[in-house]
Design goal:
The protein is α+β, with helices and mostly antiparallel strands. It is built from seven helices and 19 strands. It folds into two domains: 4-122, no CATH class; 128-321, Rossmann fold (3-Layer(aba) Sandwich).
Amino acid sequence: MTTSKGHTGYRYTVYGVGVTSDIPFEFPVTRDVDTPLAEVEFLERAEGEFPIPARDPDSGAETWFECRLLPDGSIYLRWSDLYAFLIEPDGLRVSCRPLARGNRGILQNFLFGQSLSFALVRQGLDQLHAAVLCVEDAAIGFLGDCTFGKSTLAASFLGAGHRLLTDDMLMVDWRAKKPIALPGSGRIKLEPDTAFALLSDATRGVLVNPDSSKRSFLLGEDRVQRTGLPLTHLFVLPSPGERDAITEVEVRPLARTAMLQELLKNSFNIEMLDRPRLQRQFAFVAEVASSVGGFALRYPRGMHHLREVREVVIEHVQETVGSRTLQ
């Protein structure tokens, strides 16, 4: 992949953020017209340059994920034996160090967005946990926790000819006085059988981590939306357990207070809970709840229902925004 390389490293624009890195990534290259919401520098450190803070002997057994606020205000993150990160107090720089099983594929396809989120929260920017599609000239998003099927539903739309704006992390730009959903990495994370069934592709994906069967698939340009779009609809997905009891597909409008609660539950970063961050987070979700239509999307378990779900969602978007006929 061709990148733009300046004096300080490779330059990318992803999730609306200008990223300078000494690590080459397969992310969209910065264009002259890009005006990022924030700037973050990624640096890869060797073992001697990146000391790992000593663990508290009373903290118990090592966990899969560790997040610690250090005395100088920086944030230390560690994912088991994959990668360690140090986010500086102002969120402008992220240092990363591969551990025993870490590699750049894992960094790009799994941990980049996770660590970037902490840097952005430090800069006062919140994100949502969502998959977002382009439907005509607008963005519609699906909210839900891991395993709720956001990416699977998004892949169904991709298979029908729609374009993906972002998978997993959603950044919203308010500079135009309305919510604009910003494009992500051009990738989607799916199980191989889902990718084969919905995208006719199960071979090009990269494992997101050694302990998962899920893969990250780089999408072709015809399946990716590279510019931001007005965010008009957010659909809250049912949990896998709830889908077992649902027998038909339906869309229910959510009251603003209910939508605000769902947005709080579907914040991308749930680790940073200091008072200033919580105040900013509440203001962010209140603005989204006031500006974007919020709906509960109900549908049964099973991939054979996805076509009907897609048709119901598109019909609902048509009716609520009065757009011309969609695919």
